[in-house]
Amino acid sequence: MVTVRAMDESLGITVPVVLHLDHGTYEGAKACIEAGFTSIMFDGSHYPIEENIAKTRELVELAHDKGLSIEAEVGSAASRVTLVSSPRLSRLEARLNKLPTP
Q1: Are 41 and 23 a contacting pair, CB within 8 Å?
Q2: Are 49 and 73 spatial neighbours (Cβ–Cβ below 8 Å)?
Q3: What would the DSSP string read from start to end of the chain?
Q4: How far apart are CA 45 and CA 2, in angstroms?
Q5: Residue in 8, 22, 43, 65 annotated catalytic
Q6: 22 belongs to the catalytic site
Q7: Are 19 and 4 in contact (CB under 8 A)?
Q8: Of the segments 28-32, 56-60, 72-76, 95-99, which one has the largest average pLDDT value?
């Protein structure tokens, strides 16, 4: 496996390099952690919440063991909307329905 450090050395890079995975899969996040990326954003929003949390915890442990920062998408936009009370949701839906369609 090629690592970020090996790539830097082979290209003669002498300045600090930041390599970020944005909205990566579970497998992609694990591979990027092992490769030495400097930060990871894991998007597990498509998993059931308990599985998402378990995968996120595992990735956090792996990332922190290597000194990397990690961010995770837990839940989804739809689940956040369900937290809005019914009267507010009705008003929001009414406002959204008035917007012009693209």
Answers
A1: yes
A2: no
A3: ---HHHHHHHHT--S----EEEEE-HHHHHHHHHHT-SEEEEE-TTS-HHHHHHHHHHHHHHHHHTT-EEEEE-S-HHHHHTTS-HHHHHHHHHHHHHSPP-
A4: 29
A5: 22
A6: yes
A7: yes
A8: 28-32
Which residue type does 70 have?
I
Tell me which amino acid residue 71 is: E
Whole-number pLDDT of residue 8: 83
Q: Does this model's pTM top 0.85?
A: no
> Judging by beta carbons within 10 Å of its beta carbon (0-12, 13-18, 19+), is residue 21 exposed, middle or buried?
buried
99: left (phi over 0), alpha (psi -120 to 50) or beta: beta
Tokens 């990397």 -> residue: 68
* pLDDT score of 90 more than 70: no
- Rounded to an integer, what distance in angstroms lies between the CA atom of residue 31 and that of residue 59? 11
